[in-house]
Each structure stands twice: as C-alpha cells, then as structure tokens.
Design a protein that fits this description.
The protein has helices spanning 12-16, 27-43, 58-69, 82-89, 93-105, 127-149, 153-170, 189-205, 209-224, 273-287, 302-311; strands at 109-113, 121-125, 180-183, 232-238, 241-250, 256-264, 292-298, 314-323, 326-336. The protein is of the alpha+beta class.
Length: 337
C-alpha cells in the first residue's frame, strides 16, 4: 500500500468560501468526496503517527519506497534524485531535504554524484536501508491482500475498476481510449456468456440460480439451432478480455428477430459498447430481411432500456412478476424495420 496512497483532494475550502468554487459544484457532491477521503485515509492508516508499525510517517515511508522502486519497472538501474522524488510526491523541498538527511544519518540511504549533472546526486538504499524497508513493504502487501480477501472475486473486480476510474479521471493526464473490437464467438465464449451473466446479475441485482439456468438454455438453443443466414452472436473484446456480448435469433413470429443476452462488463461501461452491439443487431436484421425486431428486458435495467430507446425501440407492454427471487417488472420492446 506504500505505492497506492494517492487519495482524492480535500475540498473543504470550496465549501467555506463560495469564491473558491467557481464551477458551482453541488455541496452534496463535495461532501461525498470529502467523506470518501475520510474513509479511505482511515482505511489505509494515513492518520496514524507512524505507518505500518514503523518508526516513520507515511510521507517518510513513501520517500523510501520511491528510492527502493527506482528502476525496477524499467528493468535496469535508474536512481532517483531528490528533485525526482519531490516532483513525484509533491513534497516541500525543505521537508524532503530534512527527511533525506535523517535517512542518510541513519545509514538507510547513500548519495552518489550524478554523472550527467554535478549539482544532482543519485539516491539509493544501502544494504541496511534495504533490510529495514523490506518487512514494511511485505506488511503493506499483506495488508492489501487481507483487505481484498474480505471480498469475493466479483467484488474485487468492482473495487479495482472503481480505483482505476478514479485514477484515470483525476490523474491529470489524457488517457488513450481502450481498443474494443467485435468478433464472432470462439471456443469457450458461450460458456463465458452464461457465467458472466450469472455473476453480474447476482452481484448487481441479486438474481438467483434460475436466471443462470435461463441464460444457459438461451445459449444452448442458439448453438444447437444456429442458422447462419439469419442469426448472429457478437463478442466484444478489449485488451484480450471479453467485455460484452449480444445474440440475434430468429423469433417464432415470422419476419421477426429477437435480441437476447445483451451484456456490457463493468470494465467497458461508458464506452458506448451497448449502443454499438445493439446497432449491429439492427443492421444485420435489416440486411437479413427481417421486418421487426423485438426484445424482452426489465425495468430495473435502466442502462439497457436507454440503449434500446436510443436505437429506436418502443416499449409495447410490461407486467410485474416475481422471478429469480425478486419482484421485477418485465418489459417488451419492439422496432419496425
């Protein structure tokens, strides 16, 4: 956790002085961010006088961490200078100088003149410094593992995705858009469709095992009765991972196609993938000569409903049901092609 203490900025001044909040951010949002700050700083022990049971503060341990990590990711020695560390951690130069001086007096770090700039010195851990730092680094790793260990695999994924979102939005550097491709299914994809639907809908809506059985039946019917002239399945892939899917099948009603099992994984939400998958269904249906598209969804699936409405579907009927252990409202949407 030494490498992950980059929490959100506090906005207290913005609440006390309206002039410092020119964007007019709603106070409840500012309060939400501040509440998260208080929660997470407590969660990782930022407020303790010492950190990880060491005799050092969090800031001091972060300095040691930066010196210890220099060059590891690059795979070759890359010593850091005091200026490097000051920029990385946004530390006051005078405070950093005192920290480094104390570490040097304790025999934890050594300085070596830079061959490129005589005014700068490269910083490195001494053998004593490495021996001192190692148990705290291990404890940090163990603490994070213990925190994640209280969560299930799906919850861990949600947590990491949320952290990545925070880092991306507040990192201050433009992020390249992830590359998403659509392709036809390959071996293992149909099993993934069933398992991912079951995992996400249990996690997000509390839907029970019968829902997984329904998904399995839909997939089995598609695979066993597949007609390549008028049916399709698309898998969305991002960075080598499956992140979405949809099926288009021939309906019992002549001239009608049905959209089934549209799914966008949380890690790919916000990219317009649901719209893209639905548009592919609409385009293929028209090319295949269908006259109508239909689908079945539920009122609680607000994001999917928005996608369908945007694509041109119309809600034609709905009915309350008790299904998969929950009270739901089933909805039926149609589009004339």
């Amino acid at each position: 956790m030494l490498d992950s203490v980059n929490y959100l900025p506090d906005s207290a001044r913005a609440m006390k002085n309206p002039k410092s909040n020119p964007q007019g951010i709603a106070q409840n949002r500012i309060s939400d961010v501040r509440r998260f700050n208080r929660f997470y700083t407590r969660q990782i022990g930022v407020l303790r006088k010492t950190y990880l049971g060491s005799p050092y503060s969090l800031a001091e341990m972060r300095v040691l961490y930066e010196i210890a990590q220099a060059g590891k990711l690059a795979g070759k020695p890359d010593p850091r200078t005091a200026s490097d560390i000051g920029r990385t951690l946004d530390l006051d130069a005078g405070y950093l100088s005192r920290v480094l001086r104390n570490f040097e007096k304790a025999g934890l770090i050594a300085r070596k003149p830079s061959p490129d700039d005589a005014r700068q010195s490269h910083l490195m851990l001494t053998p004593r410094g490495a021996k001192t730092f190692a148990p705290y680094e291990k404890r940090s790793q163990d603490d994070v593992a213990a925190m994640l260990g209280t969560l299930g695999a799906n919850q861990q994924t949600r947590l990491i995705d949320a952290m990545t979102t925070i880092e991306t939005l507040l990192g201050g550097e433009p992020q390249s858009a992830p590359s998403v491709t659509l392709r036809q299914p390959k071996h293992g994809d149909f099993g993934w469709i069933v398992s991912r639907h079951a995992e996400l809908y249990a996690l997000e809506y509390g839907w029970g095992d019968p829902f997984e059985g329904l998904c399995a039946q839909i997939v089995a019917d598609f695979v066993n009765n597949y007609d390549a002239t008028c049916e399709r399945c698309w898998i969305a892939e991002m960075n080598g991972d499956n992140v979405g899917c949809v099926m288009l099948v021939k309906d019992k009603e002549p001239g009608t196609a049905r959209i089934r099992l549209l799914l966008v994984d949380p890690k790919a939400r916000g990219l317009g993938l649901g719209v893209w998958l639905t548009d592919e269904c609409v385009k293929f249906s028209r090319a295949a000569g269908y006259k109508k598209l239909t689908l079945w969804t539920h009122s609680i699936l607000t994001a999917a409903r928005h996608v369908y409405e945007k694509a041109g579907f119309t809600l034609t009927s709905s009915e309350p049901r008790h299904t998969w252990g929950k009270d739901v409202v089933a909805e039926f949407w149609d589009m004339t092609l």
